[in-house]
Amino acid sequence: MGHKGLDKIIALQKNPANIRNLCILAHVDHGKTTLADCLVASNGIISSRLAGKLRYLDSREDEQLRGITMKSSAISLHYAFGEKEYLLNLIDSPGHVDFSSEVSTAVRLCDGAIVIVDAVEGVCPQTQAVLRQAWLENIRPVLVLNKMDRLISELKLTSLEAFTHLQKILEQVNAVTGALFTSKVLEERAEKEEQKEKKEQKERDSSGSQAGESHAGETPGADQVYDWSAGLEETDDSHLYFSPDQGNVVFASAIDGWGFSIQQFARIYSQKMGIREEVLCKTLWGDFFLNAKAKKIMKGAQAKGKKPLFVQLVLDNIWTLYDAVVTRRDKEKVEKMMTSLGVKVMARDSRHSDPKVLLSAICSQWLPISQAVLSMVCEKLPSPLDISTERVERLMSVGARQFDSLPERTQELKNAFVQCSSEAEAPVIVFVSKMFAVDAKALPQNKQRPLTHEELAERREQARQRHADRMAANQQAQSSAGPAQLGIQSYVVSLPAGGEGDPIQMESLAAVKEPEVEEVAKDTFVAFARVYSGVVRRGQKVFILGPKYDPAQGLNMLPEGCMASDSVPEVPHLTCCTLDSLYLLMGRELEELDEVPSGNVLGIGGLEDFVLKSATISTSPACPPFIPLNFEATPIVRVAIEPKHPSEMPKLVRGMRLLNQADPCAEVLIQETGEHRCLDDLRQRFAKIEITASKPIIPFRETVVRPPKLDMVNEELGRQHKTAIIHQVKEEAPQSRFSDTLHVDPGGLVTITTPNRLATVGVCALPLPTEVTCLLEASSELVRTLEQVNMSLREGRSLTVSPRTLEDIAHLKARLAALLQGHKWKNAVEHIWAFGPRRYGPNILLNSVEGYQRPSVWQCLDPAEKGAEPCAAALRDLDNSIVSGFQLATLSGPMCEEPLMGVCFSVERWDLQQTRARPEPPSRAAATDSEGAEAGEVVPEDGGAGLEAAAAATPEEEAGPGQVTRHWAGAGSAGCYGPVSGQLIAVMKEACRHAFQARPQRLMAAMYTCEIMATAEVLGRVYGVLGKREGRVLHEEMKEGTDMFLISAVLPVAESFGFADEIRKRTSGLASPQLVFSHWEVIASDPYWVPTTEEEYLHFGEKADSANQALKYMNAVRRRKGLYVEEKTVEHAEKQRTLSKNK
C-alpha cells in the first residue's frame, strides 16, 4: 500500500461520523468473497479483471485450493460518496457452518452487515443463521441479491418470471426477519404484563379489602380478552424489512461486475421521462405500470396484464444486453447499445473469444457493482456514533447481572460508548474478538521497506563511487607490479574490493545472521479488535479484563483513581500489559500505526501472553467485560492426539496451546466439527511435527425408559420381561463387592449398607419426561447460577443476584412443576435435592426420606430464608456425601461409563447410626466433602475405627433410623467422619448404578441436523446414503422456480464421518450437506436384549446375533475405554466344518 493511500486512511480514521464497520454474511457459495474482490478492486488494490478470480481476502493456501473462506479477514477501503469521503472497514466472513465461530467474531466488531442471497437458491439454512446472529448482536443489515446472471443463463427465465421470483425471495428473507422481530416484541410484552400484574398485586395487598375486591373484579375481564398480537400492531417495524424502494436492496451479479439499486435507475429515468425521482423510487418496485397514452404511472399491473415498471425499465434492458452479447453475439446490436449507454471498451475485449469478458467490460462501466453497494452502505448503515443504548447495555451486562445492578462508575462508561469520543480524557475501551496467527515475516517491521526516489539516487551515487575507487586501485596495481604478477595481483586485489570485506568476515556474518532468520520464521499472534472509546496508542499501558472479571470487586480492591501504569495489586481476572504494536488490517497485509481513534477496527500485537481467545481492554478498572460471543454451532466430536515421536511432546503441547488460541471454537483439546482444518493447522503450522490422531471420539449418553409394552416382534408383553430384568440384576449382585449388603426388591428399590454397617441407603431410578430433560439441558447456565447462590447461602456469604435472574429461576421452577404431573411426581419439584452431573446436568436427585426436611434448592426465591445464615443447621451430617455419590454416578453410567441423561434418582431411605466419635464442625466437613466429591476421590481413613466406635456407643447416644444427634468437641475429632463419609459416597454411587440397572436401559446418541440441497435427478441417491447411515428424513420441499429440493434430516454423529464425501461422490457434486449438532436421541433397541418369548426365538433364533445398533455403539465405547466387552472370538481355528462333511 502506498504512503499516499495510508495517509488518507489515517486521516479518515479521525472522523467517526464517516466510518462504516461492516461484514459480509451469507450461505456458503453465495458470492461473498467475489463481491469483496469487486469492492477491493474499486480502490485499485487489485485489477478489476481479477475480481472474482483472485479471491484477495482468502489469504490461506487451503482457502485458495478449496475455494471457500475459512477465516474472517478485514480490509479498510476509501470511498467518495457525493462531497463526503468515507472509510469502510470491511470484514469478509465464512459461509460454511463448520466455520460459523468466525462469523460470530466478525459480527461483534461491526455496526452493519451486507447479507448476500443467491438469486437462484434463495434463503438457505446458513442465511437464516447469519440473519439471526446479526439480530442478536443488534446490527443493521442491507441485502444484496447476487448471481442474477444465473436467472438468465441457467434457469432461462423471462424478465417477468424473474421479477416474480425475486419478489418471492425478498418475502422469504423478510419472513425470517419478521419472525425474529415478533418473538422479541412478544417477550417484551410478556415482561411488561408480568411487571404490571406484580404492581397491581402490591397495590391490592396494601389497599383495603374493598379496593382489593374492585381490582379483582376488573382483572379477569382483561385476562379473558387477551390479544397476543396487540404489541405487534403498536410497534413500528417498517425499518426492519428489506425493500428496494427503501434503498436497502441491491440487485447484482458480482462475477460479471454489475449491480444496481432502484435509486440509480430512478435517477436515469427522471431525466429522460421528466418524472420526479422520488416518484420513480416509490413506483419502480411493486405492482405499478406505465400508461403510455396518459403518460402516467398507475397501479394494478398484474390485474390488467401489464408489464410492471421494474420489468419494463430495468430488467428488460439487462436481459436484452445478455441476449445480444452472450446468446446471439450480435456485434451490430452490441455497438448500438454501447453507443446509447455511452460506454467504451478496449479492442481486445471486443475481440475476445469469451463473450463474458465483453459483457463484464460493458456492465462494469454502465452499472458498476462497487458504486451501488458502497453508496448503499454509506447511506443506510450506521456509523460508530449511532450505536444504540440498548446494544451498549446488552454488551456491558455480563452473566446474570443486569445493567442497573452494575456499579455507578461502570454505568457512567455508557456515555463514553455512545459518544464514541476520541478526546484525551475519554477512557479507552477495546474489545478483542479473536486472536489470529500471522507469519512473523509478514509483519511490517520485518518486511523490506520500498525505497524513496532520494534513497535510490543516493545508493546509485554510492555504487558509482565504489566502482570508480575499484578502477583506480586496479590501475595503480598494474603500474606498480611487474608483467608476471599482473594477473595474480589484480585477482587478489579485486576480491576485497568486490566483496567489501575478506571471506572470513563474510562467513562470520552469515553465521551470526542464521539464528535471526530462524527466529523470524515463527508465527506471532495479532488481536482482531475494535476501539469503542478513546484513542489507542502504541506503548500504552492498559488493563486486560478476563470474561469473569467483576468490576465491583475490582473497584473495591484497587485504590481510587488507579491507572494501568501504577503498581496494581493482584485482582482476579485482571492483568496489566503494554500494547506493543498497532496494525491497520489490509487483507493479506498489515500496516503499522502509531495510534487508532475510536470507532475503528485494528490489529494489536503483543497480547498473545495475556489474551486466550477474546478479552476486553480498558484504561478504567470500572469497565465490565463484554458478554461472550454467540456461537451458532457447538463442537461435539473430540479427537485424541499424540506425537509420532514421544520426544516431540513439548512441541505438540505448545502447538495445541497456539491452536486453542487461534481457533475460537476449539475447546481444551482439539474439537472437530466435520472439517480437518484444526488438525492440518496443528500439523503444518503450530506444532510442525508428525502427529497421530485417534479415530473421532463420539459422545453418548445413558438413560432409562419405561418398560416396553411390546416385544421385538410387536407382541404384547406380560410381566415376565420386567421380572426377568430384576432377576438378572439379582443374579449379578452377589458377584459384586457389596454382595452381603445389597438388596433389590421387585419394585426396583435398591438398598445398600456401608461396610461398617453405620449407614443404609435406599434408591430407586425413574425416567424423567423428555420435556423435563430438554428443559434442564437448555437451562444449564441458570441451574449453575442457582447452585452458586445455594452454595453461598449455605456458607453464609452474600451474593447479589439480579431480579431478572430470580424471575428466570422462578419461571424454571414453575415450568418443572407444570411438566412433572401425576401421582409419582407429587411435590417432586419441592423435594429436589440436587442436579447432576457437575451439579447442573439433566438428572435429578429427589429427597423422599421420611422425616428429613432439608433446605430447598429454591430457597433463594423465598425472601424469608434468604437472610437466614444458619440454614446449614437443617442439613444432616454427611448430606454432601449423598450428593457427591449422586454426582459420581451420573458422571459415568454402568453401560459404558458415559454421563447419564434424563434420569431421576429418588432416595427412599437413609439411615445413620450415631457413634461416640465427635464430628467436625459442619462448615469444615462440608468443604472437605465437596472437595472430595468434585475431585471424584474417595479416601477412607481407618476402616476399623468406625466399627470400634459403633460398638462402644452407649445406648443413650444411639439414634434411631433417620435421626442424628450432633456433638461438638474442640479436640479428638478424628472419629468415624472420614471412613463413613468416604464409604457413603461409594455406597450412594453403587446404589444409583444398581437402581439404574434395575430399569430398562438405553443409549442416547448425539444427532446432527442435516440440511441438503439437491436437484431432482439425484434425490434418490441422497435418500440412499441417508438410509445406509441410519439417517431419518424429516421433510423435503421444492424451492419455487427452481429444480432444487431442500431436504431436512437427522443423522447420528457416529455415522456422519465421511458422509459429506460420500454424498458428493454419489451425486457427482450436485448435493452438499451442512451438519449442525441438534439434540440427543434415545436409540430404540435394547443393548442387553436376548430372546425371551417363543415368537422371538422363532424370529431371531437362539443366538439372536442379528445387528444390534445400540450394542455395537456400546461395545465400541467400552473397547476404547479398556472396559470388558462380552464377545465371542474364534482363536486358533484350524478348519471350517460344514454340514456336508459332518455326515
From TrEMBL:
Domain (Tr-type G): residue spans on this chain: 17-385
Annotated spans, Disordered: 191-222, 458-482, 915-941
Signal peptide boundaries: none
Pfam families reported for this sequence: EFG_C, EFL1, GTP_EFTU
Compositionally biased intervals (Polar residues): 473-482
InterPro entries: EFG_III/V, EFG_V-like, EFL1, P-loop_NTPase, Ribosomal_Su5_D2-typ_SF, Ribsml_uS5_D2-typ_fold_subgr, Small_GTP-bd, T_Tr_GTP-bd_dom
Skewed-composition ranges (Basic and acidic residues): 191-206, 458-470
Record keywords: GTP-binding, Hydrolase, Nucleotide-binding, Ribosome biogenesis
GO molecular function, one term: GTP binding
Record's protein name: Elongation factor-like 1
Cellular component, GO, one term: ribonucleoprotein complex
GO biological process: cytosolic ribosome assembly
